[in-house]
Amino acid sequence: MSPAPDPRPTPPHPEVLTIGRVGVDVYPRQVGVGLDEVESFGKFLGGSATNVAVAAARHGRSSAVITRTGEDPLGRFVHRALRGFGVDDRFVTAVPGVATPITLCELFPPDDFPLYFYGRDPAPDLLIEADDLDLSAVTGADLFWATGTGLCRDPGRTATLAALRARDRRHPTVLDLDYRPMFWPSREEARRYVSEALPLATVACGNVDEWETAVGTRDPVEAARRGRERGLSLAVVKQGPAGVLAADATGLHRSPPVPVEVVNGLGAGDAFGGALCHGLLSGWPIERTLRFANVAGALVASRLACSDAMPTTAEVLAAREETPDAS
């Protein structure tokens, strides 16, 4: 269940503004069985850019998301859930004639979570028009977050690139590489547009496969180096069991993995993203930011939902004290 709405007044510009995917996650209550055998489900707010906005809000950041829903009951659910999490929904509007997308998954811990997307042809969040963007909000946000999935088709692609260009590389401008093969005709097509977006960002983050899509290598150190060559101030490579590697002007930084009993790994990256936003805006040293984000991701991996599971700062700090290497 979503928490009570945040009573604080809405600021003119959010600290964290994201653009991209939204939907409704319909996740099974039973673990280790296929959808054909599942008996009950839970309904949750979902979508990577939306989850990051929720995660940032859980750390006390004013946040908002630019996205689109269908003109339907699930679209109304999206608005209610966003408000419940304290996320500004003023940039969320309905597109007539399309459905709010639904995502189902299967849970086979620790590392197999098949996803099934419905209502994404076309998805309303890929129908964002550049002319409809509030560029003053984009440029005024302390941190702007875009995703690779937002580049997979027009008009959303053009809108995402327009927003990134409007930022004029104001730091932090983050590109979540977020490569999902089912949304692209080929990896080469994805690389073409991600390569166009990458120099417009100051920070990029993704897993090894996503970095291969972006810069053509699966080697984490080389991927980070190539990201820096494209002009990034910070390149973050998530390596799963090998932890996280990041490169900035001071060199390479590594953060070990956080041991956890995995229930659902699907929201961990978005929790990492929201925590990364918080660390960047707090001006923390990169080592502290990576460790904080790692713990946030691990907490969500140990829970069923995505948005509903996003931890507060207090939860992350408490769990951080209980994990090894919490320096």
Please characterize this protein's 3D structure:
Strands 1, 4, 5, 6, 9, 10, 11, 12, 13 and 14 form a ten-stranded mixed β-sheet that branches. A four-stranded mixed β-sheet has the order 3-2-7-8. The protein has a single domain, classed as Ribokinase (UDP-N-acetylmuramoyl-L-alanine:D-glutamate ligase, 3-Layer(aba) Sandwich). It has helices spanning about 50-60, 75-85, 135-140, 155-165, 185-195, 210-215, 220-230, 270-280, 285-300, 315-320; strands at about 15-20, 25-30, 40-45, 65-70, 85-90, 90-95, 100-105, 115-120, 145, 175, 205, 235-240, 245-250, 250-255. About 50% of the residues are buried. Helices cover about 35% and strands about 20% of the residues. β4, α2 and β5 (about 85-90) form a beta-alpha-beta unit. α6 packs across α7. It is of the alpha/beta class and about 325 residues long.
What is this structure's SSE topology?
Layout: E1 16-19, E2 23-28, E3 41-46, H1 48-58, E4 63-70, H2 73-84, E5 87-88, E6 92-95, E7 102-105, E8 115-118, H3 135-140, E9 143-147, H4 156-167, E10 173-176, H5 187-197, E11 203-207, H6 208-215, H7 220-229, E12 234-238, E13 244-248, E14 251-255, H8 268-282, H9 286-301, H10 313-322
Parallel strand pairs: 1-4, 1-9, 2-7, 4-5, 4-6, 9-10, 10-11, 11-12
Antiparallel strand pairs: 2-3, 7-8, 12-13, 13-14
Helix pairs in contact: 1-8, 6-7, 8-9, 9-10
